[in-house]
Every structure is written in structure tokens, then in C-alpha cells.
Amino acid sequence: METRLRDGARRSVPIGIAVIAFGVSFGVLARTAGMGVWAPIVMSATTFAGSAQFAAVSILHTGGSVAAAIAAASLLNARYVPISISVARLFHGPLLGRAFRSQLIVDESWAVSVRPEGGFDLRLLLGAGLLLYPCWVAGTAVGVVGGGLLGDPRRLGLDAAFPALFLALLAPQVRGRRPLVAAALGGAIALALVPLAPPGVPIVVASIACLVGWTRP
Amino acid sequence: MSSVWVVVAFVGAATVIFKSAGPVLLGGRDLPSRVRGVVALLAPALLAALVVTQAVGGDKQLVFDARLLGLAGAALAIRLRAPILLVVVLAAALTAAARAL
């Protein structure tokens, strides 16, 4: 069955609601941190990656240096190197177009595009990205301007929506032995590194678990 | 330029480069079968790492809180073949309920 952009958007509606809520809270935090009105909105529009933006703003807010904020956010987003490599073969056409469309890659749009039988569906990824991008940017704008109307999204349990989404998309992936080993190893590496390494590093290092695919089946 | 805009510019540029790395350098190219076998396993490895970091990740520490109850409910719902919408809503609702108590 052929998928459409719309299918990707429809699948990410529940997570879009959580993304709006976190966009609002990012806007509130950024405003509180003295970032002004436009910088947080521009950041959401150009970076489009929640965790790194929260990290950068928190560091600035607590008096950290510019270098520390940039380093922490860049480490967090370094996971997009392995993530973008995983979907690279789906991107065709002129270089600039590939670079442009790849900006719709974000954890949730990438996860939604995972096919249960293996591989990825580009239209699901782009459709999900096209829905989540305005959610994130508009949420940020509302947060910057409107302040804390919504309250803490964690009070609504919305922070648990993200691991639940990733687990739901992981489950059909791990039918075979090798995907199961890769998942177990990736999860174990992340768990071991969370207390030791700065945020972001555990996910990047966990990606080496894919090397179990090197051996011939 | 204020320090805020320096951070916005650098983080934005770095992220654009990271996200486009694969599609720009490898886009549309067919990789050797062994490399494909490795790349195919990036999905389960990264998804599992995202589950872990989002469920118990804190700032350089493991945090075990109400998110785990939500995730347990999600796991049960996945087991019972519930649609993703229900899985996600259930996780949020259980976590919110646990925090409200």
C-alpha cells in the first residue's frame, strides 16, 4: 500500500500535541532566561530539536558560557549524524533539495517513518516532519508571548509520551534475532552511559550497536 | 551580536549539518550489502537508546520517576496490539495520574 505525506502527519498527531506543549514550555523558559522574543522563535525554526534547545537555554539561564551552551547542544544533536545516515538512501534529487528536506528529520518524524518490516518510509518521515515543525515553532511563539498559560507539561505526563512512542515503534522492529541484539545492546549502552557522559553522548555511542549487522547472517 | 544570537546561530548551523550529513553525503546511493546490514540495525539500536534516555535519563544521572509507570502501561498496551495513539495517550495519562496522587 502506498503511503502519503498525510499518513505521516496523521500518525504524528498525538505526538504533535506533546510537541506543542513542550514548544510552549521552551518559549517560556527562553523568555525567562532573557533570550527576548525573536531569538527563541528563530532557534526553534532553524534548530528544530527540542532537547538541544532546552539544554542550550538552561545553560545560558544558569549563567553558563556561550561555549558551554553551544557544546552541550551540539553534542545532543550529534545523534542526527547516525539518524540521518540510516535514512540517507531514501533521499534523491539535487543536493540542495536533499539538504533542505533532511531538516524535517527529528527524533519523532524519523521514528514514525520506521517500517515494521524494516527500513524507512520517506513520505511518512516528511509528512510527520511537516506536521511537527509548525507545532514546535508555533508552540515556542505561544510560550514566548503568552507565558505560562499551559503550566508544566510534565504535570500532564507529556514527557512520558516520547519514550512510549519510541517503544511502540521499536516493538515491531525486534522480531528477528539481530535487530533484537542491536536494540538490547543499544539500550544497555545508553543506560550505562547516562550517569557518566553528558546528555546526548549516550545515544551517539549506542548507535555502534548496529555493528552487530556486520557479520553475515 | 549578543551572546544569545551567537548560540542560536552556532547551534542552528551545527544541527543543519548533522541532519543533512546522511542525505547529502550518501543520498540515493546504494551501499555495499554489508554496510546496508549495519545501517539497517541503526533503527533498533537508536530507538532503544531513545526509549532509555527519554524514560530514565536525567542530567548525568538516572532518574526513576512516574515516567516508568507510563512506559509500563505503554508496554502492556503494545503487547495487546493497541494503536499507537492509545499507547501514547495511556503513557501520558498514567504518568499524570501518578504525579497527581
Which key features would you list for this structure?
heterodimer; A: 217 residues; mainly alpha; 12 helices; B: 101 residues; 5 helices
What is this structure, in a nutshell?
The complex is a heterodimer of chains A (217) and B (101). By secondary structure, chain A is mostly helical. Chain A has helices at 5-11, 13-32, 38-46, 50-61, 66-77, 80-86, 95-101, 107-112, 122-146, 161-170, 177-193, 201-206.
Describe this structure as you would to a colleague.
The complex is a heterodimer of chains A (217) and B (101). Chain A is built from 12 helices and no strands. With 217 residues, chain A is an all-alpha fold. Chain B is an all-alpha fold and 101 residues long. Chain B is built from 5 helices and no strands. The N and C termini of chain B lie far apart (47 Å). In chain B, 48% of the residues are buried. Chains A and B meet through helix 2, helix 3, helix 4, helix 5 and helix 6 of A and helix 1, helix 2, helix 3, helix 4 and helix 5 of B.
In sequence order, what are the helices and strands of chain A, one letter per element? HHHHHHHHHHHH
The topology string of helices and strands of chain B comes to HHHHH
Average pLDDT of chain A, rounded to a whole number, is 89
| Beta-strand proportion of chain B | under 5%
What is the gyration radius of chain B calculated from CA atoms? 19 Å
Please report the total strand number of chain B as a whole number: 0
User: Helix tally of chain A?
Assistant: 12
Task: Using the alpha-carbon principal axes, give the shape of chain B.
Answer: flat
Oligomer: heterodimer
Report on the biggest sheet of chain A: none
Structural class of chain B: mainly alpha
Largest interface: A-B, 105 and 76 residues
- How many H/I helical runs of chain B? 5
The N- and C-terminal alpha carbons of chain A lie at a distance of 29 Å
Task: List segments of chain B where confidence is low: pLDDT < 50 over at least 5 consecutive residues.
Answer: none
Largest sheet of chain B: none
